[in-house]
Every structure is written in structure tokens, then in C-alpha cells.
Amino acid sequence: xxxxxxxxxxxxxxxxxxxxxxxxxxxxxxxxxxxxxxxxxxxxxxxxxxxxxxxxxxxxxxxxxxxxxxxxxxxxxxxxxxxxxxxxxxxxxxxxxxxxxxxxxxxxxxxxxxxxxxxxxxxxxxxxxxxxxxxxxxxxxxxxxxxxxxxxxxxxxxxxxxxxxxxxxxxxxxxxxxxxxxxxxxxxxxxxxxxxxxxxxxxxxxxxxxxxxxxxxxxxxxxxxxxxxxxxxxxxxxxxxxxxxxxxxxxxxxxxxxxxxxxxxxxxxxxxxxxxxxxxxxxxxxxxxxxxxxxxxxxxxxxxxxxxxxx
Length: 311
Hints:
72% of the residues lie in helices and 3% in strands. The protein is mostly helical and 311 residues long.
């Protein structure tokens, strides 16, 4: 298989997934800011907090409020996903074939995240600032405020914080995904319908989606506290939407440990978990959709390239 099939399939899958799941990510970012809704502290029930924040956002800002930062995502989602998913496949194959490591998939997932975050971090910083900002905030005004506050280096604010979150998430996700995928493929219900792949594994869209959703759920829940801290670091002193009541929000810090301390001291440890439902609702189906699209597109490219080589 040509090397380019992995990045092409990964880029296309990432763009499609972001188009579907961005509104849920916006609610997740707003809940991670640790602010109340309608002048009251956000409920400790993560599902109730999710519903209240979504309702408040739509009532005050319309659907546009749910798509803050979406333009930025469209620009960078393809390249970042190409590096991430393409890098995972290439590294996974190399580690499995040449080193026979027992944890090749989690290691490949973590390493792919290291690469992808170089491209994704500036986009993530811009996206999250726009997601929590007033609905009419422009990319230009947001960028001026960011550079005035932190300089150009502010675009990479939270790279290491991002790696602390997404590195473990990717290791957990791909470890759970590949294990669940192999287990599901062995079931009689799916086995006869699976496609035999060149690497010796079996593939089916339903298996990819179920295994990917399971991996996304486990990874999302386990890394939620880290994601809350990362979001605070990246947003910093950005002006936020009037939907968000900031009276009890902890003062912004630039370091992970300092941010953790002020969140716990000002808002209590429960604040770290406020966005759990939104994060799981965003990442679980998003991961399932992305990996299903990626694997399906990869299989189609594999067949197309194989047919072309025969011709």
C-alpha cells in the first residue's frame, strides 16, 4: 500500500467528524471554564449541566453560538487528522512488524499525538477562545487579544498541557479500540461479514464504530480532569460569552499545576469533572465516526490501489 493512503483517509475522516460533533465540543469547552449558568453555579450533575448550558447558549446566541471557532477547525482539521491517523497507522505497523512490542498500538497512538499537536495546538487555542467568547467575536479580534496577552507564542500555549491530555487519551483509545475490534471480529455475528485486510486483520464498519465509541468513552472519562485544566490554560484571560457567569471562576494561570490548585481551591474538585458528560458525548460518538470513516476510506483506497496495480 502507498504511504499516502493513511494520511488521505485520516484527513477526510477528521473533517467529516468535526462537521458533525463541533456543537457538542463547544458546550464541553464552556463547561470546562467552570462557570455558572444564569447567575448560579453550574449543577454538579454533568448531564444536567450539559443540557442547561446547551439551552442557555441557544436561547441567548442561537445556533451560531454552538459553532464558535468552526471556521478555524475547517482550516486545520484535515492536516491535523492526516498527521494523527496516518501517523498512527504508519507507526503501528512499524512497531508491530519490526519490534514486536506488546503495547505497539498505545505507543503508536501517543507518538502520533506528539506529531499532530504541533499543527493542532494553535488551532485548538483559537477554537476554544472563540467557543467561549461572545457569539459576534471575530477571528481577527480574538487573535489581536491573544497576541496582546501572550505574544505569538501564545498560539502554542498548552502544547505540553495538550500532550498531557491527548497523549494518554490516544494511548487509551487505540489500546481499547484495537482490543475491542479484535474481540468483535471474532464473534459469529460479524466474522462472516468482515473484510480480510492486507495486515491480516478483519474489518467491518459496524465493528469500527462500536469499538471506536467504546475507546472514546473510556479515554474521555479518564482524561476529563486533565482536559479541564488544559482548557483553562489555553483560554487564559479571554473575554467570555455573557451566557457564562464568571463570578466564581478561578483566576487564570499559565501553568498546569498552578491552574489545578486554583480550580480546586476556588471551585472545589468537582469542577474538574463538570464537563465529563459533554466530553464523553463529544468524543465517544466522534471517535466512533472518525475511526469508522477512516477505516472504511482506507479499505476503499486499498481496493482502488490494488485494482489499479492489477491493470
